[in-house]
Every structure is written in C-alpha cells, then in structure tokens.
Amino acid sequence: MTSQTIPVEPFDLVVFGATGDLCERKLLPALYQRQRAGQFSEPTRIIGSSRSELSDDQYRSFALDAIKAHVAKAEIDNRELDRFLTRVSYVSADATTGRGFKELKAAIGDSANVRAFYLAVAPSLFGSIVAQIDAHHIATPTSRVIVEKPIGRSLETAREVNDSIGRVFDEARIFRIDHYLGKETVQNLMALRFANALYEPLWNSAHVDHVQITVAESVGLEGRAGYYDKAGALRDMVQNHMLQLLCLVAMEVPASLDADAVRDEKLKVLRALRPINQLNSERVTVRGQYRAGASNGGAVKGYLEELGNGGSDTETFVAVKAEIGNWRWADVPFYLRTGKRMATRVSEIVIQFKPIPHSIFGDAAGRIFANQLVIRLQPDEGVKQWIMIKDPGPGGMRLRQIPLDMSFAESFHERNPDAYERLIMDVIRGNQTLFMRRDEVEAAWRWIDPIHAAWEERSQSVQPYTAGTWGPSASIALIERDGRTWHESF
Ligand code: BG6
C-alpha cells in the first residue's frame, strides 16, 4: 500500500539559523526527503541564512553533509540529492544589526512563490528577525512564519514572544510547531477516535477508568545543558508535547478537521484542566533527577556530573496526575510521566477501560482483566487492543487476555516520514491544523505556571532516580495511591 504524494505550490523557504542543530538534523533531511518524494514544484528554493559568512557552495556542502549524516544510506538518491542542492542558496545576515537583510531581499527578488520564514533560532531572536523582515519589506501579505518551542518559559514571557511575532504576522500566518503533532501515530489518534464508530461511545467517564501518557527517553542532556537546565522536564515536555497528546485524547469531536475547529476543542480541554497549586502539588506531582546508572547498554553519568554543576535542582523527570473538570472526564485521572535517562525509549498512551460490571464466569475461569487500548507512538508504532478470550482447548472455560495487535511497520511497508516533512509541507499548503494557536500555548502556560510556583513555594525538591530506571519511587507511589499501576509492556 503506498500513499499518494500531492505536489505543493512552488515556494521560497528562508531558514534563519541555517547552520544550527535543528536545520542540520531535521530540516535539511526533511526537505531532501520531500524532494525525493517528488513533492516540490518548480521553481522551489531554499535559502539558508545565519550570521556565518558562507558562500552558496559552502552552504551546499554543509547541506550535503547534513543529509548524508541524517538520512539512511538506502534513501540517498544521488540524482535527487543533486537536484535538491541546486535549490539551495545562502545569505549571511544578522538580525541584531540588520546586516544582510537587503541582500536577502534581493536574493528572494519579486518571486511569486509562496514565501515562508523558518525561525530555527533562539526565541530571543524571533522579535528582531521579524522586525528586520518587516523593515526591509521582505514579507508579502501571504508570507508565513514558522517558530518552535520554547515559546516563553511562563505565561508572561510566552505573551512577549507571541506579541513580538504578532506585530508583523497575523495569527493566520504564524505556524507554531509542536513536532509531536506531526508524528504519524499522533495523527492516527484522531483517525482511531473519529474514523471508527467503535470507540467514541466508550470514550468517557462511564467506561474509561483512567488514561496514562508516557514519554520516556533513554538519552540524557545531549549537549543541551544551557537550555535544558533552565527549562526542566515540565517546561520541555509537559507544557507542549504531553499536553497536546492529552488534548487529542480528551477533546470533543470537532465539527471538521479545519484548523480552528480542532484547535477550539483542544483549547476547551486546556481550560478545563483542574489547577495544580500549593494545595495539591505534593500529592499530584513528582519531580525527579537522574543519578549515575546504566543506559543504552553502558554506564552513564548522573545529571549533575553531566552538567558540571552540583547545585542544580532542575527536574529531568516529572509525573503528574492531571484531571479535567468536565462531564466527559469527571473523575478520570490522566497520569502523565516523562523523563530523560529512563529504562527505555517509549512513548505510549494507554486508555484503561473499566472492569465488566458483573462476571458470569466462576473462579476457575481466572481473572478477568479490564480492556486496555495501548497506542504506541514510538518506537514500534502501532495499536494494541487488549481483550479477554477463551483459552483454546477442551479444558473448560478458562479466560485469557490477548492483544488485537496492529503494528504499523508490519501492516504498511513504507518509510515512516519524519514529523518535520509533513509539518513543513502543511505550512506551504497553509494548513494550520497541526500547529498551535496562540491561545492554546498561553492556556497551557496558565496551567503550568502555578505548578512551578507551588514547587518553589513548597520547596518540593527533586527525587533522585538511577539512570536506566522508570524514575523515582515516588512516581510509582503517585499512581499506586489510587490503586492503579503504571503500564509496563516495554
Ligand atoms: C524536544 C525536547 O521537544 O522533544 C527534547 O526539547 C526531547 O528534550 C525531544 O528529547 C523528544 O522528541 P522525540 O521526537 O525524539 O520524541
């Protein structure tokens, strides 16, 4: 089974931060893959920009190295790669002084292509870049701007970032990336819920006992100490990716897939989250920080040694019991946990259904497990619906739990495209469904800020956990207090 590639209109994509990590690891490989898939129309151009003084050829050679390093060998097609590189050019520019923006304008010329500016730079530069774009009249009325987290580190700072971009681009032209929304399986969550009649009638507090969302990583700091130590797991993962997943699970059925129809429903969920503050934070949140241990088959340092700063109180793990105050989800906890240096890399959503109300089977039949729907986002993407069946054979009525198992890799033998491939193409198509609207980002911060304030006020310190485990024991206690356990099918 192959999916169809529909070419997008010709576009000019200007990437600021063109020599940075995001562009190297994600954007250039994603753009090359779209070239290989035949999705570009002529005359599409990619213009890299950063402060470094590079010639077009030097930047092409950077792009070539990036693609070779981050695309599987079997997917390198030299002809397509050459074609791709002919689209690439480079302009050195500095947004703090305005140097190079005249040259950038000249490089773009008066092309009628869809125009998009990707700000793959620190958010502190967003404001000056869009101001220079404006001052040099580089944006057309339909130009788009793409930004990514961190969008602030609190509600107040998020507003400042949003205001600085909003001075030049209106909301319909701002594409805020949460790369989790571009993941194939995350979108599948919408297909599962809204393209099947089976689940929706059960998708509520009458039938669902609780929901678990786990995003576990085995990596540590990955050289991002400067950013990460100021952020911590709550800002880095929960404010954005985890809450977006929660929204997709919990939202009402939107009237359509139109961007605002979907985003309106997600916003309602964010607004219905019950506050966590100094009154309940110790009961419903756990902060952790990894100590030395083993990960990916080798010994690894603890967070503080990796950081080279023994005094940091930044959490590398967080578990939260979130509750949504509305009819659909009354008394259905959403347990969220995420961490670095955990036992394995896995992202999963578990919908735990309630037990059957009455059993007609005797004790000899064995335990009847409540149904469970496990949506595996990565790796080994797929869906498992755990059900009870009769154990085969003539030995009487014994029951057994088995999964109806759909592994996407086994069912579809296609490459799983990276989130950025879809998201960049959606920008060109002008489709904002998978991008966060300003009010969503701010509503998420409005829920997160009091958690940080409570941690500070109650001096809720980080609990140590050994690298390569499932986090501090307090995280297990958090869910076991409610008579439940973390799902571990790993
Ligand atoms: C990023 C976080 O947004 O998501 C990183 O800043 C994290 O800390 C990453 O490692 C996880 O993304 P993925 O796609 O590897 O699950």
From TrEMBL:
Active site: 241 (proton acceptor)
Gene Ontology cellular component annotations, sorted alphabetically: cytosol
Domain Glucose-6-phosphate dehydrogenase NAD-binding: 14-188
Segments crossing the lipid bilayer: none
Pathway: Carbohydrate degradation; pentose phosphate pathway; D-ribulose 5-phosphate from D-glucose 6-phosphate (oxidative stage): step 1/3
GO molecular function, one term: glucose-6-phosphate dehydrogenase activity
Pfam families linked: G6PD_C, G6PD_N
NADP in keyword set: yes
Gene Ontology terms: biological process: glucose metabolic process; pentose-phosphate shunt, oxidative branch
EC number in record: 1.1.1.49
Binding site for substrate: 179, 183, 217, 236, 340
Entry-linked NCBIfam families: PRK12853.1-3, zwf
Record protein name field: Glucose-6-phosphate 1-dehydrogenase
Naturally occurring in which organism (per UniProt): Chelativorans sp. (strain BNC1)
Gene: zwf
